[in-house]
Design goal:
By secondary structure, the protein is an alpha/beta fold. The protein is built from 38 helices and 29 strands. It has an eight-stranded mixed beta sheet. Strands 10-11-12-9-13 form a five-stranded parallel beta sheet, with helices on both faces. The N and C termini lie far apart (80 Å).
Length: 1085
């Protein structure tokens, strides 16, 4: 910027790491760098006798015109220019770019000098060529470099000729896809691009086309711009800075160093009025003055937060993610002018965000149907906010899939928000990183309900009516901007050991520090324990922050006590307490028996102290176990949850006993005082959790497998309760089964939980009787809930309610009888089977509305006076069964088609006509959906022809006779719709009822439409086990009953025809049936 003063806005953006660099190849970057594109064109023209003065693309195109098959020669020329021997080296320009901290670079250079410059500075680089990663940079890459015109290391990627350039310029938007998120939120600075080149204009348009009118001011650095170029670019809000690359970058660097924020929080010479170490507590913003060892990571994560709307921070448990955010990153964001809302997803994450933002902005609770609406209401157009969702793994431990689905959807909608500006940090343990994949996948529609009694699997396949097939992935880029935090390296751990102590007037003996870091052995220690017992270092040489804090805190407190001083009382730090001068020595460390002993004793030693503080050791151990999750992480509990947890874990604990409650609270206070448990507030609610997940992992070893399973069931129930309260969703059957398996250990279920469990059991038809009884004991109005299910709009819920009530005994017989008139066959089937069990005398069958009962017994099948395939007449025994009173109507078939998501239009005025033009496969599938089945031809013929009247006595009994037609032995055109009626079309079902009904009350069994049966066409005698009931066969199937287009002969009960199962005709319909007792329910009751 030698000839121009640096724009303040540009300096500010570069200082905070919020700028994108486009590095052009139109201007030299220094003597040791690659030739520019102009120099390459001149060299190519000179070497091969091409016309001078051309662009590189034109010269390369001319070269291939002369040597059409020699692209390899062109690449060889380029390689000799870009990779000469000795190799080229990064220039001062490259190093200046690295020093300025650009983390997103688009380059027109073919070489790898920019990558090498970053790598020499210890940066991790993700290179992108042709939209593909050259080498995935792993977790938390420091910089992304897009090679716009290819990479010399990948010859196939090189863009050389005019044709190559045309292909690239036609696809620029895709090539820039990996930096689009950066460009959308940051200004661009073009260095080394000729502003008079039309190619730059096309590149700029492709980079910013999605911004519309919201483009920020952008910059071009070029030494001698023409006035018309300056004016032209100004119209597009682009300022040209007249400077050469190196002077400009050096001047920019000086200005940035003056403005770039340093790690804040400590003034040289200041004495901190607090303990210098935090034990297992995390560092808060007010602890910035003793937060040391993360001087690199804090500014880096700060810049990454501002580079993209969402940052995912992850690392192993104990690496210090919370401390980094609270004491390192959040203060930098606040100084930058951002409001920060620190949130824990302990319940509904959307509600937690709303409450956290309101606390951070000191607002009353605001409404808004979505999170996006809430942010707009809370921040207006100009607000700037960062939402920190810490310990984000709690989302997967404490909330249901349904709650998470809603959260991901609303979070994704907020990531494009620029006015106001809202950014998010998700911080979680890396062993939960894979769980984030659910945000990158399309959202699935809601599950279909489970099978109910009498249903088959086919009846619940296909999408739920009214629900989409799925939604796009809500946050597909959740890992694009991510950073992995690791344990402290030895050098940074040294700072974390020595520097906080120094600020508290304490000296750490250098030899002690070296032993702790594993860089020196303990003097006079046996070889076997010289490092393993005394060093804090892991096998890879890194230092876990929790181990460092525990050991240093123990050393400092012991030195404080040895010097006759007391630590500051809680709440007094920085006010009246002044730390005395101390020295932490190797001898003191030896007296405490080293790191291994300190780490091993920190829990057991604290437990031994509990009785001295009016607590109970056994209660303390139980409480600590209650505060561990099934995943060996710490659980945040309020007082009510803690009391309930103790009551469930300890049968001798009585939550109504004042003495037990007093003991619990005294024990909890002792654990807080001993720093094993910490308390914190979310709004007005006081919560308690273990001081660190490291402690949770230790306490988890005290817990047996059965107790862990009970914890898992309790956590699952808590998540389901959250989903129930926020979304009104019942527990899914799989989760209900897991909870039920641990029912004996869930001793302290409240009425709300019992109601949800009973409602869910009722809906799923699973263990209804058990949860009915337990919920009733818990004061839940189970009768009202059970009966309400019969009125539900969803037929599956009604069917499940019938099944459940049937299991609950005689008291619900009358309501179940009422369900025999339901419009949906699944509900009627459930009612039939429930009543079969409850009232085996069958007196209730007089209430059947849509089905007829055919009792067990023999009948005569076939007709010796009929056609050949009706002979011989023979006796067949059939079990009892139920049969539809009418053929399936268009209205009934449409309900089926609607439910499985297929189109079906009812012919005008024919809702109550039999459905026609369906194949045998269609008929089979409908029957399965209805919870029924196709009738065998034997069942169909018995229901149509048999009369249970003794010929001699005229009384109903075991003996009977066969009718020729359903109504009797004489044809009567007034009792059926055959060709003799002259109607020539199907008629409404029941039009000829009751005069044309069979003995069992079945209508339309003679004429109207043919009805598919399940049976393959085979000769008589009929035997169900001779293969004719093979449902997998594709041979012809039997139809019976005749139709409106056939004469009276086809209406005879014994008449049979057959067609292939895929045949559809306007005369063919279906009637379905269902087996009677004995019955094995599909629902598992």
């Amino acid at each position: 910027m030698s000839s121009t003063k640096g724009p303040g806005e540009l300096v500010e953006n570069v200082a905070r790491g919020s700028c994108v660099l486009f590095l052009g190849a139109d201007h030299s970057l220094g003597e040791t760098g690659s030739p520019t594109r102009v120099q390459l064109a001149a060299a190519l023209s000179g070497q091969y006798g091409l016309p001078p003065g051309q662009s590189l693309a034109d010269a390369a195109q001319d070269f291939l015109s002369q040597q059409p098959r020699n692209r390899h020669g062109l690449i060889t020329f380029l390689r000799n220019q870009v990779e000469p021997k000795p190799p080229l080296q990064p220039t001062d320009v490259h190093r200046a770019i690295v020093d300025l901290g650009f983390d997103a670079v688009v380059t027109a250079w073919y070489d790898n000098l920019m990558e090498r410059a970053y790598q020499a500075a210890g940066k991790t680089v993700a290179g992108v060529v042709q939209g593909l990663d050259v080498a995935y940079a792993g977790h938390g890459q420091d910089v992304i470099i897009v090679k716009l015109y290819g990479d010399i290391k990948q010859p196939d990627s090189l863009v050389l000729t005019r044709r190559d350039m045309m292909r690239v310029e036609g696809n620029l938007a895709q090539r820039l896809e990996d930096v689009r998120p950066y460009v959308r939120l940051r200004p661009i600075i073009f260095v080394g691009w000729d502003p008079g080149d039309e190619g730059l204009a096309r590149l700029y348009t492709a980079a910013t086309e999605s911004l519309g009118e919201h483009k920020r001011r952008n910059y071009i650095v070029w030494p001698h711009p023409k006035p018309e170029e300056v004016a032209w670019w100004q119209e597009d809000n682009v300022e040209i800075i007249p400077a050469a690359p190196l002077p400009f970058l050096r001047a920019l660097g000086r200005l940035v160093r003056q403005q770039r924020p340093l790690q804040p929080g400590y003034r040289p010479g200041q004495v901190v009025g607090k303990l210098p170490y935090k034990f297992l507590n995390y560092f808060d913003p007010e602890d910035r003055d003793i937060f040391c060892g993360r001087e690199v990571e804090a500014p880096l994560v700060y810049r990454m937060t501002l580079s993209y709307p969402l940052l995912t921070l992850f690392g192993q448990s104990g690496v210090g993610k919370t401390s980094l955010l609270r004491a390192g990153v959040v203060p930098l964001l606040v100084e930058e002018g951002y409001a920060c809302a620190y949130v824990r997803a302990l319940g509904d994450p959307l509600q937690a965000i709303r409450e956290g933002v309101c606390r951070a902005l000191t607002l009353e609770n605001l409404g808004g149907p979505t999170l996006l609406d809430f942010f707009r209401a809370a921040l207006g157009d100009e607000g700037r906010l960062v939402v920190v969702l810490d310990q984000f793994e709690e989302l997967f431990i404490r909330t249901s899939k349904r709650t998470r689905k809603r959260f991901w959807r609303e979070l994704g909608a907020c990531l494009g928000l620029t006015s106001p500006e809202v950014r998010f940090i998700l911080s979680l343990r890396e062993d939960y990183l894979a769980e984030l994949d659910e945000a990158r996948r399309p959202l699935r529609p809601e599950r279909r309900p489970e099978l109910v009694e009498g249903q088959r699997p086919e009846s619940v396949e296909g999408p739920v009516k009214g629900l989409a097939e799925g939604e796009p992935a809500p946050v597909p880029t959740i890992l694009r901007n991510s950073y992995r935090l690791t344990s402290l390296e030895a050098d940074t751990a040294y700072l974390a050991i020595v520097e906080p102590a120094r600020r508290a007037r304490c000296t750490v003996e250098p030899q002690l520090a070296e032993v702790l870091l594993g860089r020196a052995e303990m003097p006079d220690a046996p070889d076997a324990e010289a490092r393993s017992v005394w060093s804090l270092a892991e096998a890879d040489g890194t230092i876990p922050p929790p181990s460092l804090q525990i050991v240093m805190d123990r050393l400092y407190r012991q030195a404080l006590a040895d010097a006759g001083h007391q630590p500051p009382p809680p709440g007094e730090k920085g006010k009246t307490w002044q730390p005395p001068p101390l020295t932490l020595t190797l001898d003191l460390y030896r007296a405490l028996d080293g790191a291994g002993e300190i780490l091993a004793d920190y829990v057991t030693g604290a437990l031994d102290e509990v009785p001295k503080r009016e607590g109970d050791r056994e209660t303390a151990m139980t409480l600590l176990k209650v505060m561990v999750t099934s995943q060996a992480t710490k659980a945040a509990l309020d007082d009510t949850e803690m009391v309930a947890g103790i009551a469930e874990a300890d049968p001798d604990f009585d939550p109504e006993d004042e003495q037990d409650i007093t003991c619990l609270r005294a024990t909890r206070a002792a654990l807080v005082d001993l720093r094993l448990v910490r308390s914190f507030k979310v709004g007005d609610d006081a919560l308690y959790e273990l001081a660190h997940d490291l402690m949770a992992a230790e306490i988890a070893t005290w817990i047996g497998e059965e107790e862990m399973q009970a914890k898992l069931a309790r956590e699952l129930l808590r998540r389901e309760m959250d989903s129930w309260h926020s979304l009104g969703k019942l527990i899914e059957p799989g989760a209900l089964q897991l909870i039920h398996e641990q029912r004996q250990d869930l001793r302290r279920l409240n009425a709300d939980e019992l109601e949800l469990l009973f409602r869910s059991a009722l809906d799923a038809g699973h263990e209804v009787a058990y949860w009915f009884g337990r919920a009733r004991e818990g004061g839940v109005n189970v009768d009202e809930i059970a009966l309400a299910g019969l009125q539900d709009k969803n037929f599956r819920t009604r069917a499940a309610a019938v099944v459940a009530l049937g299991r609950l005994g005689e008291r619900f017989v009358e309501p179940i009888i009422g369900m025999l008139a339901d419009d949906y066959p699944q509900v009627r089937v459930a009612a039939i089977h429930a009543l079969e069990r409850l009232r085996p005398d069958g007196a209730w069958r007089e209430h059947l509305k849509y089905e007829c009962y055919v009792p067990a017994g023999e009948f005569v099948m076939g007709d010796d006076q009929g056609d050949r395939d009706e002979k011989p007449a023979h006796k067949v025994y059939l079990d009892a069964f139920y049969i539809g009173q009418y053929p399936v109507t268009n209205a009934e078939y449409k309900r089926y088609m609607d439910d499985i998501g297929r189109a079906f239009d009812i012919p005008a005025g024919k809702a109550d006509h039999p459905v026609v033009s369906i194949s045998w496969y269609d008929a089979r599938d409908y029957a399965a959906w209805a919870g029924m089945r196709l009738l065998t031809e034997a069942e169909w013929e018995k229901a149509a022809s048999w009369e249970e009247v003794d010929k001699e006595t005229g009384e109903r009994g075991d003996k009977g006779r066969k009718r020729k037609f359903p109504w009797g032995d004489e044809f009567d055109r007034n009792k059926c719709n055959t060709s003799e009626s002259g109607i020539r079309d199907a008629t409404p079902v029941g039009k000829y009822s009751p005069q044309g009904d069979s003995f069992y009350g079945c209508a339309d069994m003679g004429g109207n439409v043919w009805e598919w049966t399940s049976s393959l066409h085979k000769d008589y005698p009929y035997r169900a086990d001779d293969g004719r009931e093979d449902m997998a066969s594709s041979d012809t199937r039997v139809l019976q009953g005749g139709s409106f287009s056939n004469d009276q002969g086809s209406a005879r009960c014994a008449f049979r025809v057959d067609y292939y199962p895929d045949y559809r005709g306007r005369y063919r319909g279906v009637r379905v049936g269902v087996a009677a007792a004995p019955f094995s329910p599909a629902s598992g009751l």
